[in-house]
Amino acid sequence: MQASNVSVYSGSWRYPSSAHDFLDLRYYQRIARVLEEGTFDLMFFDDRLAMPSIYNASPADAVRYGARPVKLDLTAVLGAAAAATSHLGLGATYSTTYYPPFHVARTFATLDHLSGGRAAWNVVTSVNDSEARNFGVDQHLGHDERYERAEEFIDVVTRLWDSWEDDALVMDRESGVFADPGKVHELDHHGKYFHVQGPLTVPRPPQGRLPIIQAGQSGRGQQFAARWADLIFTADPSQSVAAEHYRSQKELVTAEGRSADAVRMLPMAYAIVGETETIAREKENIFRDELVHPMASLTLLSELTNHDFSGYSLDDEITDELINSVSGIRGLVQGVKKHLGGGKMTLRTLANHRATLLQGPRFVGTGAQIADQMQDWFETYSCDGFVLAATHFPGAFEDFVRLVVPELRRRGLLRSHYTGSTLRENLGLARPASSFTAPVSSDVRP
Protein backbone atom coordinates (compact mmCIF):
# COMPACT_ATOMS: atom_id res chain seq x y z
CA MET A 1 0.00 0.00 0.00
CA GLN A 2 0.86 3.68 -0.28
CA ALA A 3 -0.89 6.52 1.55
CA SER A 4 -0.80 8.31 -1.74
CA ASN A 5 -2.49 9.13 -5.00
CA VAL A 6 -1.11 5.88 -6.45
CA SER A 7 -0.23 2.34 -5.49
CA VAL A 8 3.27 0.95 -6.10
CA TYR A 9 2.14 0.97 -9.74
CA SER A 10 2.54 4.65 -10.60
CA GLY A 11 -0.17 4.73 -13.28
CA SER A 12 -2.90 3.45 -10.98
CA TRP A 13 -4.57 6.85 -10.55
CA ARG A 14 -5.36 6.95 -14.30
CA TYR A 15 -7.38 3.72 -14.42
CA PRO A 16 -11.03 4.64 -15.06
CA SER A 17 -12.45 2.98 -11.94
CA SER A 18 -9.72 4.12 -9.53
CA ALA A 19 -11.00 6.01 -6.51
CA HIS A 20 -9.54 9.50 -6.13
CA ASP A 21 -10.58 10.25 -2.55
CA PHE A 22 -7.14 9.33 -1.14
CA LEU A 23 -7.25 12.41 1.13
CA ASP A 24 -10.30 11.02 2.95
CA LEU A 25 -9.82 8.55 5.80
CA ARG A 26 -12.82 6.53 4.53
CA TYR A 27 -10.76 5.62 1.43
CA TYR A 28 -8.30 3.66 3.58
CA GLN A 29 -11.06 2.25 5.75
CA ARG A 30 -12.85 0.85 2.66
CA ILE A 31 -9.68 -0.86 1.48
CA ALA A 32 -8.94 -2.19 4.98
CA ARG A 33 -12.41 -3.76 5.21
CA VAL A 34 -11.95 -5.44 1.84
CA LEU A 35 -8.62 -6.91 2.96
CA GLU A 36 -10.11 -8.12 6.23
CA GLU A 37 -12.96 -9.77 4.33
CA GLY A 38 -10.28 -11.62 2.37
CA THR A 39 -8.50 -12.58 5.65
CA PHE A 40 -5.26 -10.91 4.59
CA ASP A 41 -2.53 -10.91 7.25
CA LEU A 42 -1.86 -7.21 7.13
CA MET A 43 -2.21 -3.90 5.34
CA PHE A 44 1.39 -2.75 4.87
CA PHE A 45 2.35 0.78 3.79
CA ASP A 46 5.48 1.84 1.96
CA ASP A 47 6.65 5.40 2.62
CA ARG A 48 9.18 8.03 1.56
CA LEU A 49 10.07 11.25 3.34
CA ALA A 50 10.37 13.40 0.24
CA MET A 51 8.64 14.06 -3.03
CA PRO A 52 10.59 12.59 -5.98
CA SER A 53 12.80 15.56 -6.89
CA ILE A 54 16.16 14.16 -7.98
CA TYR A 55 15.18 14.32 -11.66
CA ASN A 56 16.15 17.76 -13.02
CA ALA A 57 16.63 18.82 -9.37
CA SER A 58 12.90 19.53 -9.17
CA PRO A 59 9.65 17.89 -8.06
CA ALA A 60 7.85 19.35 -11.10
CA ASP A 61 7.56 16.13 -13.10
CA ALA A 62 6.55 14.09 -10.07
CA VAL A 63 3.75 16.58 -9.47
CA ARG A 64 2.79 16.89 -13.16
CA TYR A 65 2.52 13.15 -13.82
CA GLY A 66 1.40 11.93 -10.41
CA ALA A 67 4.63 10.00 -9.75
CA ARG A 68 4.04 9.56 -6.02
CA PRO A 69 4.04 13.24 -5.04
CA VAL A 70 1.62 12.59 -2.15
CA LYS A 71 2.70 10.79 1.02
CA LEU A 72 0.39 11.09 4.01
CA ASP A 73 1.53 10.53 7.58
CA LEU A 74 0.98 6.86 8.33
CA THR A 75 0.09 7.25 11.99
CA ALA A 76 -3.26 8.85 11.17
CA VAL A 77 -3.92 6.50 8.24
CA LEU A 78 -3.36 3.34 10.28
CA GLY A 79 -5.36 4.74 13.16
CA ALA A 80 -8.31 5.09 10.80
CA ALA A 81 -7.78 1.56 9.45
CA ALA A 82 -7.56 0.16 12.98
CA ALA A 83 -10.91 1.70 13.85
CA ALA A 84 -12.55 0.10 10.81
CA THR A 85 -11.25 -3.45 11.37
CA SER A 86 -10.85 -6.04 14.12
CA HIS A 87 -8.24 -8.54 12.90
CA LEU A 88 -6.25 -7.06 10.02
CA GLY A 89 -2.58 -6.36 10.75
CA LEU A 90 -1.37 -2.77 10.25
CA GLY A 91 2.17 -2.24 8.97
CA ALA A 92 3.96 1.08 8.54
CA THR A 93 7.33 2.14 7.17
CA TYR A 94 9.51 4.24 9.47
CA SER A 95 13.09 5.28 8.73
CA THR A 96 16.06 4.52 10.98
CA THR A 97 17.95 7.43 9.42
CA TYR A 98 15.65 10.39 10.06
CA TYR A 99 13.57 9.44 13.11
CA PRO A 100 14.89 8.94 16.67
CA PRO A 101 14.47 5.46 18.22
CA PHE A 102 12.32 6.65 21.14
CA HIS A 103 9.79 8.23 18.78
CA VAL A 104 9.51 5.07 16.66
CA ALA A 105 9.26 2.80 19.71
CA ARG A 106 6.49 4.92 21.25
CA THR A 107 4.56 5.31 17.97
CA PHE A 108 4.42 1.59 17.28
CA ALA A 109 3.82 0.52 20.88
CA THR A 110 0.87 2.91 20.97
CA LEU A 111 -0.52 1.56 17.68
CA ASP A 112 -0.09 -2.00 18.91
CA HIS A 113 -2.04 -1.30 22.11
CA LEU A 114 -4.83 0.68 20.47
CA SER A 115 -5.30 -1.93 17.73
CA GLY A 116 -5.24 -4.91 20.08
CA GLY A 117 -1.86 -6.26 18.97
CA ARG A 118 -2.00 -5.73 15.20
CA ALA A 119 0.93 -3.41 14.41
CA ALA A 120 4.08 -4.13 12.38
CA TRP A 121 7.13 -2.01 11.55
CA ASN A 122 8.76 -1.93 8.10
CA VAL A 123 12.37 -0.95 8.77
CA VAL A 124 14.02 1.19 6.07
CA THR A 125 17.27 3.14 6.03
CA SER A 126 15.90 5.67 3.47
CA VAL A 127 17.25 6.07 -0.03
CA ASN A 128 18.20 9.51 -1.29
CA ASP A 129 19.37 13.09 -0.85
CA SER A 130 15.86 14.56 -1.20
CA GLU A 131 14.91 12.92 2.08
CA ALA A 132 18.12 14.15 3.68
CA ARG A 133 17.42 17.75 2.72
CA ASN A 134 13.93 17.60 4.24
CA PHE A 135 15.56 16.79 7.57
CA GLY A 136 18.29 19.43 7.50
CA VAL A 137 21.04 17.15 6.18
CA ASP A 138 22.93 18.02 3.01
CA GLN A 139 23.68 14.49 1.88
CA HIS A 140 22.37 11.00 2.50
CA LEU A 141 24.47 8.62 4.61
CA GLY A 142 26.50 5.96 2.81
CA HIS A 143 25.06 2.47 2.37
CA ASP A 144 27.10 0.62 5.01
CA GLU A 145 26.85 3.43 7.55
CA ARG A 146 23.05 3.47 7.18
CA TYR A 147 22.92 -0.22 8.08
CA GLU A 148 25.37 0.20 10.97
CA ARG A 149 23.14 2.95 12.35
CA ALA A 150 20.04 0.77 11.74
CA GLU A 151 21.55 -2.10 13.77
CA GLU A 152 21.91 0.14 16.81
CA PHE A 153 18.52 1.78 16.17
CA ILE A 154 16.54 -1.44 16.11
CA ASP A 155 18.39 -2.78 19.15
CA VAL A 156 17.37 0.33 21.08
CA VAL A 157 13.74 0.18 19.87
CA THR A 158 13.26 -3.47 20.82
CA ARG A 159 14.75 -2.90 24.28
CA LEU A 160 12.49 0.13 24.77
CA TRP A 161 9.52 -2.12 23.98
CA ASP A 162 10.85 -4.50 26.66
CA SER A 163 11.46 -1.79 29.24
CA TRP A 164 8.11 -2.53 30.90
CA GLU A 165 7.83 -6.18 31.92
CA ASP A 166 4.56 -7.86 31.00
CA ASP A 167 3.26 -7.84 34.58
CA ALA A 168 4.58 -4.38 35.54
CA LEU A 169 1.10 -2.83 35.70
CA VAL A 170 -0.52 -3.41 39.11
CA MET A 171 -3.34 -0.83 39.20
CA ASP A 172 -4.31 -1.63 42.77
CA ARG A 173 -6.81 1.02 43.84
CA GLU A 174 -6.73 -0.06 47.49
CA SER A 175 -2.96 0.25 47.95
CA GLY A 176 -2.53 3.09 45.51
CA VAL A 177 0.17 1.23 43.55
CA PHE A 178 -0.16 1.80 39.83
CA ALA A 179 2.88 -0.16 38.60
CA ASP A 180 5.87 -2.01 40.03
CA PRO A 181 8.96 0.22 39.59
CA GLY A 182 11.18 -2.86 39.86
CA LYS A 183 9.68 -4.08 36.58
CA VAL A 184 10.08 -0.85 34.61
CA HIS A 185 13.66 -0.51 33.38
CA GLU A 186 15.88 2.30 32.20
CA LEU A 187 18.09 1.50 29.23
CA ASP A 188 20.91 3.95 29.91
CA HIS A 189 22.04 3.32 26.32
CA HIS A 190 25.15 5.13 25.12
CA GLY A 191 26.14 3.98 21.64
CA LYS A 192 27.89 5.30 18.56
CA TYR A 193 24.74 6.91 17.15
CA PHE A 194 22.24 7.15 20.00
CA HIS A 195 22.01 8.02 23.68
CA VAL A 196 18.69 6.89 25.13
CA GLN A 197 17.81 6.86 28.81
CA GLY A 198 14.38 5.19 28.79
CA PRO A 199 12.17 3.63 29.92
CA LEU A 200 9.49 3.92 27.25
CA THR A 201 6.37 5.85 28.26
CA VAL A 202 4.16 3.04 26.91
CA PRO A 203 3.80 -0.37 28.62
CA ARG A 204 5.06 -3.44 26.76
CA PRO A 205 3.11 -3.96 23.50
CA PRO A 206 0.59 -6.84 23.33
CA GLN A 207 2.86 -8.60 20.82
CA GLY A 208 5.96 -8.09 22.99
CA ARG A 209 8.04 -7.25 19.98
CA LEU A 210 6.12 -6.11 16.91
CA PRO A 211 6.74 -8.09 13.69
CA ILE A 212 9.63 -6.53 11.78
CA ILE A 213 9.41 -6.18 8.00
CA GLN A 214 12.58 -5.61 6.00
CA ALA A 215 13.37 -5.45 2.29
CA GLY A 216 17.15 -5.17 1.98
CA GLN A 217 18.32 -6.66 -1.31
CA SER A 218 22.07 -6.01 -1.04
CA GLY A 219 24.37 -8.42 0.77
CA ARG A 220 24.42 -6.11 3.77
CA GLY A 221 20.65 -5.75 3.64
CA GLN A 222 20.12 -9.50 3.52
CA GLN A 223 22.39 -9.98 6.53
CA PHE A 224 20.45 -7.32 8.43
CA ALA A 225 17.17 -9.03 7.54
CA ALA A 226 18.51 -12.41 8.64
CA ARG A 227 19.25 -11.00 12.07
CA TRP A 228 16.13 -8.92 12.68
CA ALA A 229 13.27 -9.51 10.25
CA ASP A 230 10.14 -11.58 10.72
CA LEU A 231 8.84 -10.77 7.22
CA ILE A 232 11.26 -10.24 4.32
CA PHE A 233 9.74 -8.26 1.47
CA THR A 234 11.35 -9.13 -1.90
CA ALA A 235 11.04 -8.10 -5.54
CA ASP A 236 12.55 -11.06 -7.36
CA PRO A 237 11.78 -10.91 -11.10
CA SER A 238 11.17 -14.61 -11.73
CA GLN A 239 10.35 -17.82 -9.92
CA SER A 240 13.82 -19.30 -10.41
CA VAL A 241 15.48 -16.19 -8.96
CA ALA A 242 12.99 -16.18 -6.08
CA ALA A 243 13.68 -19.85 -5.28
CA GLU A 244 17.42 -19.23 -5.07
CA HIS A 245 16.88 -16.10 -2.96
CA TYR A 246 14.57 -18.11 -0.68
CA ARG A 247 17.22 -20.78 -0.18
CA SER A 248 20.13 -18.39 0.40
CA GLN A 249 18.20 -16.07 2.74
CA LYS A 250 16.98 -18.95 4.89
CA GLU A 251 20.61 -20.11 5.20
CA LEU A 252 21.57 -16.65 6.46
CA VAL A 253 18.73 -16.82 9.00
CA THR A 254 19.93 -20.15 10.41
CA ALA A 255 23.51 -18.85 10.49
CA GLU A 256 22.22 -16.15 12.85
CA GLY A 257 21.03 -18.87 15.22
CA ARG A 258 17.37 -18.49 14.32
CA SER A 259 14.93 -21.05 12.95
CA ALA A 260 14.33 -20.67 9.20
CA ASP A 261 10.62 -21.10 9.92
CA ALA A 262 10.68 -17.96 12.10
CA VAL A 263 11.04 -15.77 8.98
CA ARG A 264 8.59 -15.39 6.08
CA MET A 265 9.86 -14.64 2.54
CA LEU A 266 7.25 -12.58 0.65
CA PRO A 267 7.73 -11.39 -2.94
CA MET A 268 5.74 -8.43 -4.19
CA ALA A 269 3.29 -9.61 -6.85
CA TYR A 270 0.56 -8.15 -9.03
CA ALA A 271 -2.64 -10.09 -9.63
CA ILE A 272 -4.71 -9.03 -12.63
CA VAL A 273 -7.98 -10.92 -12.32
CA GLY A 274 -10.76 -11.32 -14.85
CA GLU A 275 -14.00 -13.27 -15.07
CA THR A 276 -12.38 -14.85 -18.14
CA GLU A 277 -8.75 -15.07 -19.24
CA THR A 278 -9.52 -12.78 -22.19
CA ILE A 279 -10.81 -10.06 -19.88
CA ALA A 280 -7.74 -10.40 -17.65
CA ARG A 281 -5.36 -10.15 -20.63
CA GLU A 282 -7.14 -7.06 -21.92
CA LYS A 283 -6.76 -5.43 -18.50
CA GLU A 284 -3.08 -6.41 -18.40
CA ASN A 285 -2.49 -4.69 -21.74
CA ILE A 286 -4.02 -1.48 -20.41
CA PHE A 287 -1.90 -1.50 -17.26
CA ARG A 288 1.29 -2.46 -19.10
CA ASP A 289 1.09 -0.11 -22.08
CA GLU A 290 -1.25 2.80 -21.54
CA LEU A 291 -1.25 4.35 -18.06
CA VAL A 292 2.33 5.14 -16.96
CA HIS A 293 3.80 8.26 -18.53
CA PRO A 294 7.47 7.76 -19.58
CA MET A 295 8.54 10.82 -17.62
CA ALA A 296 6.94 9.41 -14.49
CA SER A 297 9.06 6.30 -14.97
CA LEU A 298 12.26 8.34 -15.33
CA THR A 299 11.39 10.49 -12.33
CA LEU A 300 10.97 7.41 -10.15
CA LEU A 301 14.18 5.84 -11.46
CA SER A 302 16.07 9.00 -10.49
CA GLU A 303 14.56 8.78 -7.01
CA LEU A 304 15.49 5.11 -6.63
CA THR A 305 19.11 5.51 -7.73
CA ASN A 306 19.67 8.99 -6.24
CA HIS A 307 20.90 10.10 -9.70
CA ASP A 308 19.58 12.84 -11.98
CA PHE A 309 18.73 11.33 -15.38
CA SER A 310 17.47 14.59 -16.90
CA GLY A 311 20.48 14.81 -19.20
CA TYR A 312 19.73 11.45 -20.80
CA SER A 313 17.36 10.21 -23.48
CA LEU A 314 14.98 7.36 -22.77
CA ASP A 315 16.55 5.54 -25.71
CA ASP A 316 20.10 5.80 -24.33
CA GLU A 317 21.75 2.44 -23.81
CA ILE A 318 22.70 1.31 -20.31
CA THR A 319 26.46 1.02 -20.66
CA ASP A 320 29.13 -0.24 -18.27
CA GLU A 321 30.30 3.36 -17.94
CA LEU A 322 26.84 4.43 -16.78
CA ILE A 323 26.60 1.52 -14.36
CA ASN A 324 29.97 2.40 -12.86
CA SER A 325 29.06 6.07 -12.49
CA VAL A 326 25.64 5.67 -10.83
CA SER A 327 25.63 4.29 -7.32
CA GLY A 328 22.92 1.73 -6.71
CA ILE A 329 22.03 1.00 -10.34
CA ARG A 330 24.11 -2.16 -10.84
CA GLY A 331 21.83 -4.46 -8.84
CA LEU A 332 18.74 -3.03 -10.55
CA VAL A 333 20.21 -3.63 -14.01
CA GLN A 334 21.21 -7.17 -13.10
CA GLY A 335 17.72 -7.87 -11.80
CA VAL A 336 16.03 -6.58 -14.95
CA LYS A 337 18.37 -8.63 -17.16
CA LYS A 338 17.45 -11.74 -15.19
CA HIS A 339 13.82 -10.94 -15.89
CA LEU A 340 14.12 -9.92 -19.55
CA GLY A 341 17.27 -11.71 -20.65
CA GLY A 342 20.70 -10.37 -21.56
CA GLY A 343 21.67 -8.07 -24.39
CA LYS A 344 21.37 -4.34 -24.75
CA MET A 345 19.11 -2.41 -22.41
CA THR A 346 17.85 1.14 -22.76
CA LEU A 347 17.05 3.64 -20.04
CA ARG A 348 13.38 3.35 -21.07
CA THR A 349 13.37 -0.38 -20.28
CA LEU A 350 15.04 0.16 -16.93
CA ALA A 351 12.72 3.02 -15.96
CA ASN A 352 9.61 1.08 -16.99
CA HIS A 353 10.69 -1.78 -14.78
CA ARG A 354 10.56 0.55 -11.80
CA ALA A 355 7.22 2.20 -12.56
CA THR A 356 5.12 -0.42 -14.34
CA LEU A 357 4.25 -4.08 -13.82
CA LEU A 358 7.74 -5.56 -14.27
CA GLN A 359 9.00 -5.14 -10.72
CA GLY A 360 7.90 -8.55 -9.46
CA PRO A 361 5.88 -11.59 -10.55
CA ARG A 362 2.62 -10.86 -12.35
CA PHE A 363 -0.25 -13.32 -12.11
CA VAL A 364 -2.88 -12.89 -14.81
CA GLY A 365 -6.07 -14.84 -15.48
CA THR A 366 -9.21 -16.14 -13.83
CA GLY A 367 -9.40 -16.80 -10.11
CA ALA A 368 -8.50 -20.46 -10.64
CA GLN A 369 -5.58 -19.63 -12.95
CA ILE A 370 -4.10 -17.14 -10.51
CA ALA A 371 -4.53 -19.61 -7.65
CA ASP A 372 -2.64 -22.18 -9.76
CA GLN A 373 0.29 -19.78 -10.21
CA MET A 374 0.44 -18.75 -6.57
CA GLN A 375 0.18 -22.35 -5.41
CA ASP A 376 3.10 -23.34 -7.65
CA TRP A 377 5.33 -20.61 -6.20
CA PHE A 378 4.40 -21.63 -2.66
CA GLU A 379 4.79 -25.40 -3.10
CA THR A 380 8.17 -25.12 -4.87
CA TYR A 381 9.66 -23.12 -1.96
CA SER A 382 9.91 -19.90 -3.93
CA CYS A 383 8.11 -17.99 -1.16
CA ASP A 384 6.11 -18.30 2.06
CA GLY A 385 3.34 -15.99 0.83
CA PHE A 386 2.94 -12.78 -1.14
CA VAL A 387 2.82 -9.03 -0.75
CA LEU A 388 0.00 -8.27 -3.13
CA ALA A 389 0.47 -4.93 -4.90
CA ALA A 390 -2.49 -3.13 -6.44
CA THR A 391 -2.86 -2.03 -10.04
CA HIS A 392 -5.62 0.32 -8.88
CA PHE A 393 -7.63 1.08 -5.73
CA PRO A 394 -9.85 -0.41 -4.49
CA GLY A 395 -10.74 -2.61 -7.49
CA ALA A 396 -7.57 -4.73 -7.58
CA PHE A 397 -8.19 -6.00 -4.05
CA GLU A 398 -11.95 -6.29 -4.55
CA ASP A 399 -11.41 -8.49 -7.63
CA PHE A 400 -8.87 -10.62 -5.78
CA VAL A 401 -11.11 -11.16 -2.75
CA ARG A 402 -14.15 -11.93 -4.94
CA LEU A 403 -12.46 -14.24 -7.47
CA VAL A 404 -9.17 -15.59 -6.09
CA VAL A 405 -9.68 -15.88 -2.32
CA PRO A 406 -12.53 -18.46 -2.58
CA GLU A 407 -10.31 -20.58 -4.83
CA LEU A 408 -7.36 -20.42 -2.41
CA ARG A 409 -9.65 -21.32 0.48
CA ARG A 410 -11.12 -24.25 -1.42
CA ARG A 411 -7.58 -25.63 -1.83
CA GLY A 412 -6.73 -25.18 1.84
CA LEU A 413 -4.10 -22.53 1.08
CA LEU A 414 -5.78 -19.60 2.85
CA ARG A 415 -7.68 -19.32 6.11
CA SER A 416 -11.45 -18.83 6.04
CA HIS A 417 -11.38 -16.88 9.31
CA TYR A 418 -8.82 -15.41 11.69
CA THR A 419 -7.81 -17.71 14.54
CA GLY A 420 -5.36 -15.49 16.41
CA SER A 421 -6.01 -12.36 18.42
CA THR A 422 -2.76 -10.62 17.38
CA LEU A 423 -0.85 -10.24 14.13
CA ARG A 424 1.99 -12.42 15.45
CA GLU A 425 -0.49 -15.20 16.19
CA ASN A 426 -2.06 -14.95 12.73
CA LEU A 427 1.41 -15.10 11.17
CA GLY A 428 2.30 -18.14 13.27
CA LEU A 429 5.16 -16.31 15.00
CA ALA A 430 6.03 -16.88 18.65
CA ARG A 431 5.78 -13.99 21.09
CA PRO A 432 9.32 -13.24 22.32
CA ALA A 433 10.15 -12.99 26.00
CA SER A 434 11.40 -9.68 27.32
CA SER A 435 15.16 -9.16 27.16
CA PHE A 436 14.97 -7.92 30.77
CA THR A 437 13.44 -11.13 32.10
CA ALA A 438 14.64 -14.00 29.89
CA PRO A 439 17.64 -15.09 27.79
CA VAL A 440 17.54 -14.59 24.02
CA SER A 441 15.26 -17.09 22.30
CA SER A 442 16.80 -19.43 19.74
CA ASP A 443 14.35 -18.48 17.01
CA VAL A 444 13.10 -14.95 17.68
CA ARG A 445 15.36 -12.11 18.81
CA PRO A 446 14.02 -9.81 21.54
Automatic annotation (TrEMBL):
Signal peptide: none annotated. It holds the Pfam family Bac_luciferase. CDD domains: Nitrilotriacetate_monoxgenase. It comes from the Bacteria. PANTHER family: ALKANESULFONATE MONOOXYGENASE-RELATED, C2H2 FINGER DOMAIN TRANSCRIPTION FACTOR (EUROFUNG)-RELATED. Belongs to the NtaA/SnaA/DszA monooxygenase family. This is Monooxygenase.
